């Protein structure tokens, strides 16, 4: 009631709000960290997380079966680390969701009311419990990238932002798992969310024709390019995507805390700030590459000589983008083997090996390269295995024909000669040649960069017959008859006779080919 003193009325003084007990606050923080440690250990030992981790490590540690794995391009390797991290992150999403719902399943929620930990602190503890798994993921990424970078054939430069994306692909799903547990108390929600995210990503977001901002919403930004690009031509929004994942993880965490009763000014401010950063990151990912990147792509595609370093080995000049110059020695070894098998005077013909890319559409581009100028042989940004066979075919074509224009299948001695040179100059050439023919569903086809060295059935039969003969005898016959074998118009029958084998009769299928 209001007290009256004389003629003046005085209002009662407001009751001051009790200050939080420092001891209780410190005790709550210690309890929260203690719970986080216990839940982190449980999370790392969860069967689903262990299975995902084992599968991930198996993929990382399994020895590469392809020869190309010995020549990694580091600006592609940093992106390859992300898929295994996403697998581990999805397992963490389900496992941490089950951990948050454990008390509900066991009917012990009511007992938490007598503890120093309010619900919002338990929520923060569960999010913190994901951090050790994030650290494990980061260590795997570091080990995977370092192992690739230490290989003798490694080239290029990795991106810190691309490498940081991997661990964030564990942190964000972990936070989502906690949020889903606060939204719906059902163990089936998290697996359904995983399926929904994967389905939406594959169907709508992963398509390279989708807008850049939409593809940036996916956990991993997919690129469908066939060959690596120099790192300065990528133009990927790696930093923006990493910022997007981090801001979204903070936003999801703040949302889970708010739903758990932690509606403080600080949490609201963090949520609003994270929302703003998330929107900003989406906008940044949707922006076109800078003018400098577009200009660099244009120059590298249309006039690569301006941006390449060149070395001369004998009568061959090798030009490569600066990051790829360590491969020049490998190119020179293959070129030397092709020249050693060729006959005079073409064995000493001057050639320029030039590395070329189709970079106008960025890393998602799938355009084919146009034929190189006469006297030039194209080298790509991939090396090893079938790429080595393709390069050898290009060098053989440069010595025999002198250009890369595709004019149809070679239905004469030149086709037999070029394919034989390429296969014999390549390590495991016969096995690679058979595999290449199977890959293109056309026996005797070598995919040589922008061109194709194609053989009809009868030319293929002659080449295979040459493989069955003693190698030294065939080499001597090739050099002795080089002028005639490399001349346009020399028939396949004549080539077979010069090389000591028999050509089969021409079939109806052979006559369907367009011959060069």
What can be said about this structure in brief?
By secondary structure, the protein is α/β, with parallel strands linked by helices. The chain has helices at 22-44, 47-61, 74-100, 102-106, 119-128, 131-149, 160-183, 189-205, 212-215, 238-259, 265-286, 291-302, 328-341, 386-400, 413-424, 429-439, 457-468, 471-480, 482-485, 492-499, 508-511; strands at 3-5, 8-10, 309-313, 316-320, 351-355, 376-379, 445-448, 451-454. The longest helix has 27 residues, at 74-100.
Q: What can you see in these coordinates?
A:
This protein has 516 residues and is of the alpha/beta class. 56% of the residues lie in helices and 6% in strands. The chain contains 21 helices and eight strands.
Topology:
Blueprint: E1 3-5, E2 8-10, H1 22-44, H2 47-61, H3 74-100, H4 102-106, H5 119-128, H6 131-149, H7 160-183, H8 189-205, H9 212-215, H10 238-259, H11 265-286, H12 291-302, E3 309-313, E4 316-320, H13 328-341, E5 351-355, E6 376-379, H14 386-400, H15 413-424, H16 429-439, E7 445-448, E8 451-454, H17 457-468, H18 471-480, H19 482-485, H20 492-499, H21 508-511
Parallel strand pairs: 4-5, 5-6
Antiparallel strand pairs: 1-2, 3-4, 7-8
Helix pairs in contact: 1-5, 2-3, 3-6, 3-7, 5-10, 6-7, 7-10, 10-11, 13-14, 14-15, 15-17
Which features characterize this protein?
elongated, single chain, 516 residues, four-stranded mixed β-sheet, alpha/beta, 21 helices, two-stranded antiparallel ribbon
């Amino acid at each position: 009631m209001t007290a009256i003193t004389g003629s003046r009325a005085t209002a009662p003084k407001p009751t001051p709000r009790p200050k939080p007990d420092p001891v209780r606050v410190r005790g709550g923080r210690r309890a929260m960290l203690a719970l986080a440690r216990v839940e982190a250990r449980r999370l790392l030992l969860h069967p689903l997380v262990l299975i995902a981790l084992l599968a991930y490590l198996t993929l990382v540690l399994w020895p590469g079966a392809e020869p190309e794995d010995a020549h990694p391009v580091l600006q592609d390797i940093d992106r390859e680390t992300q898929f295994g991290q996403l697998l581990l992150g999805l397992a963490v999403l389900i496992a941490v969701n089950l951990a948050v719902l454990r008390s509900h399943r066991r009917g012990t929620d009511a007992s938490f009311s007598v503890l120093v930990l309010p619900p919002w602190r338990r929520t923060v503890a569960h999010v913190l419990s994901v951090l050790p798994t994030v650290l494990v993921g980061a260590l795997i990424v570091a080990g995977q990238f370092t192992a690739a970078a230490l290989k003798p054939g490694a080239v290029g430069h990795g991106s810190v932002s691309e490498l940081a994306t991997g661990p964030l692909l564990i942190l964000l799903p972990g936070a989502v798992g906690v949020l889903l547990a606060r939204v719906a108390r059902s163990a089936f929600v998290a697996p359904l969310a995983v399926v929904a995210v994967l389905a939406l990503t594959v169907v709508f977001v992963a398509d390279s024709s989708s807008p850049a901002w939409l593809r940036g919403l996916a956990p991993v930004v997919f690129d469908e390019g066939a060959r690596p690009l120099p790192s300065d031509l990528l133009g990927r929004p790696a930093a923006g995507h990493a910022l997007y994942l981090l801001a979204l993880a903070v936003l999801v965490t703040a949302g889970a805390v708010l739903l758990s009763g932690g509606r403080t000014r600080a949490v609201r401010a963090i949520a609003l700030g994270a929302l703003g950063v998330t929107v900003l990151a989406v906008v940044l990912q949707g922006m076109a590459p800078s003018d400098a990147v577009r200009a660099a792509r244009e120059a590298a595609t249309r006039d690569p000589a301006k941006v390449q370093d060149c070395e001369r080995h004998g009568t061959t000049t090798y030009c490569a983008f600066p990051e790829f110059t360590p491969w020049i020695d490998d190119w020179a070894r293959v070129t030397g083997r092709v020249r050693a098998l060729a006959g005079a005077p073409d064995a000493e013909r001057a050639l320029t090996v030039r590395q070329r890319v189709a970079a106008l559409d960025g890393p998602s581009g799938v355009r084919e390269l146009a034929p190189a100028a006469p006297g030039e042989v194209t080298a790509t940004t991939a090396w090893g295995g079938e790429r080595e066979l393709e390069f050898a075919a290009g060098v053989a074509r440069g010595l025999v024909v002198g250009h890369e224009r595709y004019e149809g299948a070679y239905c004469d001695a030149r086709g037999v000669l070029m394919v034989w040179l390429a296969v014999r100059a390549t390590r495991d050439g016969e096995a690679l040649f058979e595999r290449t023919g199977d890959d293109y569903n056309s026996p005797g086809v070598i995919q040589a960069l922008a061109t194709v060295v194609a053989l009809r059935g009868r030319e293929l039969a002659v080449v295979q017959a040459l493989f069955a003969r003693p190698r030294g005898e065939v080499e001597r016959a090739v050099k002795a008859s080089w002028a005639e074998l490399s001349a346009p118009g020399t028939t396949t029958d004549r080539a077979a006779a010069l090389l000591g084998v028999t050509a089969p009769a021409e079939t109806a299928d052979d006559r369907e080919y367009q011959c060069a």
